[in-house]
Amino acid sequence: xxxxxxxxxxxxxxxxxxxxxxxxxxxxxxxxxxxxxxxxxxxxxxxxxxxxxxxxxxxxxxxxxxxxxxxxxxxxxxxxxxxxxxxxxxxxxxxxxxxxxxxxxxxxxxxxxxxxxxxxxxxxxxxxxxxxxxxxxxxxxxxxxxxxxxxxxxxxxxxxxxxxxxxxxxxxxxxxxxxxxxxxxxxxxxxxxxxxxxxxxxxxxxxxxxxxxxxxxxxxxxxxxxxxxxxxxxxxxxxxxxxxxxxxxxxxxxxxxxxxxxxxxxxxxxxxxxxxxxxxxxxxxxxxxxxxxxxxxxxxxxxxxxxxxxxxxxxxxxxxxxxxxxxxxxxxxxxxxxxxxxxxxxxxxxxxxxxxxxxxxxxxxxxxxxxxxxxxxxxxxxxxxxxxxxxxxxxxxxxxxxxxxxxxxxxxxxxxxxxxxxxxxxxxxxxxxxxxxxxxxxxxxxxxxxxxxxxxxxxxxxxxxxxxxxxxxxxxxxxxxxxxxxxxxxxxxxxxxxxxxxxxxxxxxxxxxxxxxxxxxxxxxxxxxxxxxxxxxxxxxxxxxxxxxxxxxxxxxxxxxxxxxxxxxxxxxxxxxxxxxxxxxxxxxxxxxxxxxxxxxxxxxxxxxxxxxxxxxxxxxxxxxxxxxxxxxxxxx
Length: 637
What we know:
CATH superfamily of the largest domain: Alkaline Phosphatase, subunit A
Protein name: Sulfatase-like hydrolase/transferase
Domain Sulfatase N-terminal: 270-567
Low-confidence stretches: 4-10, 632-637
Helix content: 40-55%
CATH topology of the largest domain: Alkaline Phosphatase, subunit A
Keywords: Cell membrane, Membrane, Transmembrane, Transmembrane helix
Number of domains: 2
Mean pLDDT: 89
Distance between the termini: 94 Å
Number of helices: 25
Shape: globular
Pathway: Cell wall biogenesis; lipoteichoic acid biosynthesis
Organism: Ruthenibacterium intestinale
Radius of gyration: 28 Å
Strand content: 5-15%
Largest sheet: 8 strands, mixed
CATH architecture of the largest domain: 3-Layer(aba) Sandwich
């Protein structure tokens, strides 16, 4: 009888069918949970009770998908270690990206993020990310699993007459994976059969409930923008007629005590300057925190002689272009896929906007940005929004830098310089849209010289890291306020009527987690979707009217209509519609309704739903439709 060598005995378990099967099931299972561990920071707490078992099929189909993917790669390459490596990277890198995006932006890893890789690379050097213990543990585990997988061999070998079985298995797994994507995740009815319900405007909650894989792939459904129910020329015309009739019946300005309500002959074509200041909000609102100086003396003084309130932002932790898109167009991101970037995906042709409308009235239009022109595709989006001249970081010569960015003071000086150049060459009115960068995330007190740094004198027990970041951020707020003061001082002495609109684009995380907001009571513990994290300061000042007006809270997409209404400027019917909407709701943004009295709700009344649907009907018509309304949106058609 032939004796089996020790080497052959050792080889027998390596190519055993049962060992191969077990490993094919173990790897996807392990990586499914390590991916979720990294994403969530923990698999304890409520994961098993209120997430995993309550939404089992969200995780189950993700697990099956990973098994099929593993089989596909292992059979194609005939190497377990290759399949282990690829699956480990795909899943755990997705977990890492989701974790950091939730920390920085409040939204998870989404399908359209791939189109923004170039923009992320542009600011990567300024972002400081802390590696989490879970990431280190998973990295070591991945290495160990790859080494072990290197000892395994497929039962049918890597070549020879059984190769066709590998081809059959790989083909079958590929078809199965496609069936899950297109037959389950891409089908709303099938998902609902398995208890998977869309929660697109609360993506962080959606991913926690159903897992990264189900969350990511079901989001592919919203890449296709569907027309609103009943979309037609007749439906659009009816909304327009109602808006125009309401405007004729009551043409009084919306805000009492506004310039438009106080005079019969208003200035028709004042200069208009938009300044969207990076991450600006008055951080001195935090209770229990004492700084070594008044942070916003100019803002507070100007609020006593201008329109002042809050801008309800669609963004948190980033996505500046989302806020300016809303402010420049009146279009709401609530109607678009969460995480999408309109400048990159939709503003690919001439589109209605405030500068487009003003340009039709004879304005010269300029944009100034303190960063590179290609960032968020502004270099291609701005011309489509009617901006004639775009000045970006490339067009500054030896500018003053703060924290590695063009300073807010330098931006103020550039606005003044462009105004003076314009006055020397043109009689046309002047519109400028300026976007600053100085106070861009992330934060560390080492970014300022000690003598310039705002100090925290008292705090409710912040960690050293949080104090450091808060001091950096507060210094940026202080210097932004100083730059605002410089701008207003200059235009106070200009004879030409000028309106300055100043607001912050969004909040950012500060310190460790949400410690700054939670320990000061600014938000409740763990309430990372609080409306308080969406309300930045908004100031609308002019050099020809000095009365205080309480704006309350208005959506970012209401900024342009509000400016025009306050000063009695000519408006398109689209902006008349948005002003009329203010009496019903001040905003519908990221699943939150801002009521006329300033309170918040996740629900909408029947009347609010009708306005919301009409808003989408008009917005869809111009962004994606015929458009039927093109003939009255701008004078140029």
